[in-house]
Amino acid sequence: MASPALFLVSTPIGNLSDMTRRAVDVIRGADVVFAEDTRRTGVLLRHYGIEARLISAHEHNEAARAELVVELLGEGKRVAMVSDAGTPLLSDPGARVVRSALEAGYDVVPVPGPSALLAALVASGIGADRFTFYGFLPRKGGPREEVLGEIATSRHTAVIYESPQRLGALLGDLARAAGADRRVAVARELTKMHEEIVRLTLQEAAEAFREREVRGEIVVVVEGGVETRADPEDPAPRVMAEALLAQNVAPSAVAKQLRESLKISRNDAYDLVQRLAGEADGRSGAAAEQLGAPDPT
Ligand code: SAM
């Protein structure tokens, strides 16, 4: 008998031909297949003539399923796990099952394949060398604003999942937070008959999708921000930093505020705040302890 292992199998995100041969072989050879929706996975498996023992594993029963998976692995079984579409764990269940299997000392084996995240990113025309995957953004309030602020100031390309009903609002929020001219790609219905990838600025996209009725599945890819070197002649960063430090705002928060409001680099913000806080304290280097080293990203 082959040794027990948990296989994370990617499945198509629309086009059934995107199932890899290895994915078919692994599922066929598995003793048990955990699926987010057994009916939906049943359709896929029938398409490939695979008979499998399917058990549901979704966000509401994942803790119990994690225990069952470990139990089955303990019996020497080969266990496969799939989500409704694409790669498990990417805005899909599975993290808990993986953790439990690893903690119990079993192998976790990826069987790579489709993912809307990578398909949208590579076809977006926007830099793919450094990116952050956000999945679905928080729907409202402070948590949403915080993530929008992070996307606005990060140099990484941002990849976001969104529903068609909320696409217009998302693009409007992104244009407000990250600026009208930032490039964006809206990738819809990837690998399906009505696949469409629209490449515009955030402002153009917000206008284009504000009124348009949109259907299907969507990934939004947003260009990273460009941080500028602080102009040594410009008094604004110093004035703002001094005012905030005088109000006892923590040095790390002051540096963050400078980066976000004045779009200066992490290093410039860090250096300035460190210097000013050191001067104010009369003991240079004190702020460095509070700030820590700047994050290189
Ligand atoms: N695990 C999946 C993956 O690897 O891409 C994603 C699952 S997540 C619950 C579903 C979201 O992924 C959709 O709301 C949409 O944002 C995106 N998505 C999935 N399939 C897509 C497709 N064919 N075209 C565009 N976006 C897609």
Q: Strand order across the biggest sheet?
A: 3-2-4-1-5
Largest sheet: 5 strands, parallel
SS-derived structural category: alpha/beta
What is the typical, i.e. mean, pLDDT?
91
Q: Can you say what the CATH homologous superfamily of the largest domain is?
A: Tetrapyrrole methylase, N-terminal domain
Total count of strands? 10
Note the beta-strand portion. 15-25%
Taking the alpha carbons of the first and last residues, their distance comes to 47 Å
Bound molecules: S-adenosylmethionine
Low-pLDDT runs: 284-289
Order of helices and strands: EHEHEHEHEHEHEHEEHEHHHH
Number of helices: 12
In total, the number of domains comes to 3
The CATH architecture of the largest domain can be named as 3-Layer(aba) Sandwich
Helix share, percent: 40-55%
User: What name does CATH use for the topology of the largest domain?
Assistant: Cobalt-precorrin-4 Transmethylase, domain 1
Features:
Cobalt-precorrin-4 Transmethylase, domain 1; 297 residues; Methyltransferase, Cobalt-precorrin-4 Transmethylase, Domain 2; alpha/beta; five-stranded parallel sheet
Kindly summarize this structure in a few lines.
With 297 residues, the chain is an alpha/beta fold.
Description:
The protein is α/β, with parallel strands linked by helices. It has three domains: 5-113, Cobalt-precorrin-4 Transmethylase, domain 1 (3-Layer(aba) Sandwich), CATH 3.40.1010; 117-222, 2-Layer Sandwich (Methyltransferase, Cobalt-precorrin-4 Transmethylase, Domain 2); 236-285. 43% of the residues lie in helices and 17% in strands. The protein has helices spanning 21-29, 38-47, 62-74, 95-103, 116-123, 141-153, 167-178, 202-211, 236-246, 251-262, 266-281, 286-291, and strands at residues 5-9, 32-35, 54-56, 78-82, 107-111, 131-136, 157-162, 183-188, 196-201, 218-222. A five-stranded parallel β-sheet has the order 3-2-4-1-5, with helices on both faces. The protein has a five-stranded mixed β-sheet with strand order 6-7-10-8-9, with helices on both faces. It is globular, with a radius of gyration of 24 Å. 35% of the residues are buried. Mean pLDDT is 91; it is low at 284-289. S-adenosylmethionine (SAM) is lined by residues 13-14, 83, 85-87, 90-92, 115-117, 161-163, 187-192, 217-219.
